[in-house]
Amino acid sequence: MAAHLLRSGASGWLLKSCLSRPATLTRYLHVTPSLDKSVSFKLSDIGEGIREVTVKEWFVKVGDTVEQFDNLCEVQSDKASVTITSRYDGKITKIHHSIDEIALVGSPLVDFDVVEEEGDEEEGSSTSSSSSSSESSGSEVEQAKSESQPGQGRLIIPATPAVRRLAKENQLDLAKVPATGRNGRVLKGDVLEFLGQVPPGTNIPHPTLAAKAAAAKPASVATPAAAPPKPAPADRVEALKGVRKAMLKSMTESLKIPHFAYSDEIDMTELVKFRAQLQAVAQEKGVPKLTFMPFCIKAASVALGKFPIVNSSLDLASESLIFKGAHNISVAIDTPQGLVVPNIKNCQSKGIVEIALDLNALVERGRTGSLTPTDFADGTFSLSNIGVIGGTYTHPCIMAPQVAIGAMGRTKAVPRFNDKDEVVKAYVMSVSWSADHRVIDGVTMASFSNVWKQYLEQPALFLLH
Known about the structure:
By secondary structure, the chain is an alpha+beta fold. 31% of the residues lie in helices and 23% in strands. It has 13 helices and 18 strands. The longest helix is centred in the middle third of the chain and has 16 residues, at 269-284. It starts with a helix and ends in an 8-residue tail after the last helix.
């Protein structure tokens, strides 16, 4: 009852009434400043067997008050980035991990001071502890401040949310951008100038910055008589994180597979003409530029339908093959975080334009770092277009538990003999296949490649699917 009266603003009346009865006050009255408790918010399992993540950005700091579902931080796993939201209403008292530190699933991310409702005072198995006096409450606040220092290692750069969003879209650290705003605030023009989108010197520094620069200028005028020789850069050790760490695991597993290699050349001359005829229709359907990749993906899906063993996975424990019904074709995409391999779902039931739209969406999410674990799950077959970088033939590595992968080289204009022994201009693309030789023999892989080749060299066949 005392706590209820204090909360409703009747504290004066309560104390006056209790002081008139000293014995009652000494024996029964217990005044608590609040019903706060400290709760550790732990990193929950985000799926796909992920056991650790890298903290990429904090959206809060010690002392901030947050509500349920507010964004706390962004973490990067070896496959995708995930935004962590709050489960509690309260005040943040401690941040356990700094930027670029590793956080394990199940370990605390932040500590909260949350306020309990009056009827929720039972002791349980939680990690909370309520304060019993104003002096103990003050000491806990001081301790929370001292413990929060490790989590405050990141320099907070003054900038508006719009400027921070622009920097995030361009993978830019605001600490590296010269600020021209008042008291060191980073403006939108500063980011655009740093990215080279506006001419240098467009933004005039604020007078507060000009005064600081003028005061510091005399000390920087003096130059040494002779510049010392520049030392050689020191070696550095960098722990594997994110995509590189995932590559270590996947390629270690891949090298346990006996690879069978097969290569061929594809005459893309007819497909070049066919694609040009479809460009206008594709633009009307939302595809700005129709590339060869959707045709390669659809041709692979047709070939997988005729050779389902190529769309299978090997279960070593039971020594059996799992034939996949869906054609979820994984596509290698180069992103600022590294090479990732999400997949396009159910290619067997999609047309060229639908596949092109899905591919463009994956590329855009990869560019902005917003791919999710679902984008990587359940891939059954892989294609890689190394030709966009250069080169012709390669030796792609199979991504377990898949049993095959293909890599296309650059399409080149070369001289070829036609049926009349005349030299003509032809567009030729090379392809390299790798298959798990424990389950796929050379004849099967060559036959699969021939079907794939037939559809690319005679693109009118796509009209049948």
